[in-house]
Amino acid sequence: MADFQVVVADPEDGTTYQFEIDGQDANRFQGRDIGETVDGGAVGLDGYELEVTGGSDTAGRPMREDVPGTELKQLLLTGGVGYEPEVDGERRRVTVRGREISDDTRQINAKIASRGDSSVDELLGDADEDE
Questions:
Q1: How far apart are CA 51 and CA 29, in angstroms?
Q2: Per-domain residue ranges for the chain?
Q3: How many Cβ atoms from other residues are within 10 Å of residue 24's Cβ?
Q4: Are strands 105-114 and 3-9 parallel, antiparallel or unpaired?
Q5: What are 21-69's pLDDT values in tens digits?
Protein backbone atom coordinates (compact mmCIF):
# COMPACT_ATOMS: atom_id res chain seq x y z
CA MET A 1 0.00 0.00 0.00
CA ALA A 2 1.39 3.37 -1.00
CA ASP A 3 1.71 6.34 1.30
CA PHE A 4 2.55 9.82 0.12
CA GLN A 5 3.51 13.20 1.41
CA VAL A 6 1.39 15.73 -0.45
CA VAL A 7 2.58 19.34 -0.57
CA VAL A 8 -0.25 21.67 -1.59
CA ALA A 9 0.55 25.23 -2.68
CA ASP A 10 -1.99 28.05 -2.53
CA PRO A 11 -1.18 30.30 -5.53
CA GLU A 12 -3.21 33.22 -4.13
CA ASP A 13 -1.16 33.86 -0.99
CA GLY A 14 1.92 31.66 -1.53
CA THR A 15 1.43 29.39 1.48
CA THR A 16 2.04 25.65 1.37
CA TYR A 17 0.43 22.85 3.35
CA GLN A 18 1.87 19.37 3.93
CA PHE A 19 -0.20 16.23 4.39
CA GLU A 20 0.68 12.57 4.99
CA ILE A 21 -1.85 10.30 3.28
CA ASP A 22 -2.27 6.56 2.91
CA GLY A 23 -4.94 3.97 2.21
CA GLN A 24 -7.96 5.04 0.17
CA ASP A 25 -6.83 8.68 0.02
CA ALA A 26 -3.50 7.61 -1.52
CA ASN A 27 -5.36 5.53 -4.11
CA ARG A 28 -6.98 8.72 -5.46
CA PHE A 29 -3.52 9.83 -6.61
CA GLN A 30 -2.35 6.48 -8.03
CA GLY A 31 -2.05 6.48 -11.82
CA ARG A 32 -2.49 10.24 -12.18
CA ASP A 33 -0.15 12.23 -14.41
CA ILE A 34 1.37 15.65 -13.87
CA GLY A 35 -1.26 18.21 -14.89
CA GLU A 36 -4.31 16.13 -13.91
CA THR A 37 -6.70 17.20 -11.15
CA VAL A 38 -7.61 15.28 -7.99
CA ASP A 39 -10.42 15.84 -5.49
CA GLY A 40 -9.12 17.83 -2.53
CA GLY A 41 -11.06 15.62 -0.11
CA ALA A 42 -8.09 13.22 -0.24
CA VAL A 43 -6.11 15.67 1.92
CA GLY A 44 -9.00 17.14 3.90
CA LEU A 45 -9.82 20.04 1.57
CA ASP A 46 -13.44 19.14 0.76
CA GLY A 47 -14.85 21.06 -2.20
CA TYR A 48 -11.41 21.90 -3.56
CA GLU A 49 -9.65 20.51 -6.63
CA LEU A 50 -5.88 20.01 -6.69
CA GLU A 51 -3.69 19.99 -9.79
CA VAL A 52 -0.66 17.70 -9.66
CA THR A 53 2.43 19.77 -10.54
CA GLY A 54 5.24 17.29 -9.85
CA GLY A 55 6.86 15.13 -7.24
CA SER A 56 9.77 12.87 -6.43
CA ASP A 57 10.41 9.20 -5.74
CA THR A 58 11.82 7.46 -2.68
CA ALA A 59 15.41 8.28 -3.71
CA GLY A 60 14.62 11.96 -4.33
CA ARG A 61 14.63 11.78 -8.13
CA PRO A 62 12.23 14.34 -9.63
CA MET A 63 9.27 13.52 -11.86
CA ARG A 64 9.38 15.13 -15.30
CA GLU A 65 6.33 15.99 -17.35
CA ASP A 66 8.00 15.08 -20.65
CA VAL A 67 8.81 11.47 -19.59
CA PRO A 68 5.85 9.10 -20.04
CA GLY A 69 4.99 6.34 -17.54
CA THR A 70 6.50 5.56 -14.16
CA GLU A 71 9.91 4.23 -15.16
CA LEU A 72 13.34 5.71 -14.51
CA LYS A 73 15.03 7.34 -17.51
CA GLN A 74 18.48 8.77 -17.99
CA LEU A 75 18.21 11.99 -19.98
CA LEU A 76 20.84 14.38 -21.27
CA LEU A 77 19.54 17.67 -19.88
CA THR A 78 20.46 21.27 -20.59
CA GLY A 79 18.23 22.59 -17.81
CA GLY A 80 14.76 22.36 -16.37
CA VAL A 81 13.37 20.01 -13.74
CA GLY A 82 16.15 17.89 -12.26
CA TYR A 83 19.16 19.92 -13.42
CA GLU A 84 20.29 23.54 -13.22
CA PRO A 85 23.44 24.15 -15.35
CA GLU A 86 26.21 26.28 -13.87
CA VAL A 87 27.43 27.71 -17.19
CA ASP A 88 25.75 28.29 -20.55
CA GLY A 89 25.73 25.25 -22.80
CA GLU A 90 26.49 22.77 -20.04
CA ARG A 91 24.72 19.41 -20.29
CA ARG A 92 24.53 16.50 -17.89
CA ARG A 93 23.01 13.03 -17.89
CA VAL A 94 20.45 12.87 -15.08
CA THR A 95 18.19 10.05 -13.86
CA VAL A 96 14.56 11.16 -13.58
CA ARG A 97 11.21 9.46 -13.07
CA GLY A 98 8.20 9.53 -15.41
CA ARG A 99 5.16 11.76 -14.98
CA GLU A 100 2.77 9.09 -13.63
CA ILE A 101 2.31 8.64 -9.86
CA SER A 102 3.11 5.08 -8.71
CA ASP A 103 4.10 3.12 -5.60
CA ASP A 104 7.66 4.42 -6.06
CA THR A 105 6.51 8.03 -5.62
CA ARG A 106 7.10 9.48 -2.15
CA GLN A 107 6.22 13.17 -2.48
CA ILE A 108 3.51 14.73 -4.63
CA ASN A 109 3.49 18.45 -5.34
CA ALA A 110 0.12 20.01 -6.11
CA LYS A 111 -1.56 23.40 -6.27
CA ILE A 112 -5.12 24.50 -5.66
CA ALA A 113 -6.90 24.51 -9.04
CA SER A 114 -10.41 25.43 -7.87
CA ARG A 115 -11.69 26.57 -4.50
CA GLY A 116 -14.59 25.41 -2.38
CA ASP A 117 -17.00 27.38 -0.21
CA SER A 118 -14.86 27.30 2.94
CA SER A 119 -11.37 28.71 3.35
CA VAL A 120 -8.38 26.42 3.71
CA ASP A 121 -7.80 27.58 7.30
CA GLU A 122 -11.39 26.71 8.26
CA LEU A 123 -11.11 23.23 6.76
CA LEU A 124 -7.79 22.52 8.48
CA GLY A 125 -8.88 23.99 11.82
CA ASP A 126 -6.25 26.75 11.78
CA ALA A 127 -8.78 29.63 11.91
CA ASP A 128 -9.04 29.43 15.72
CA GLU A 129 -5.28 29.66 16.20
CA ASP A 130 -5.03 32.90 14.20
CA GLU A 131 -7.50 34.80 16.37
A1: 11
A2: 4-120
A3: 9
A4: parallel
A5: 998 999 999 999 999 999 999 998 999 999 999 999 999 999 999 999 9
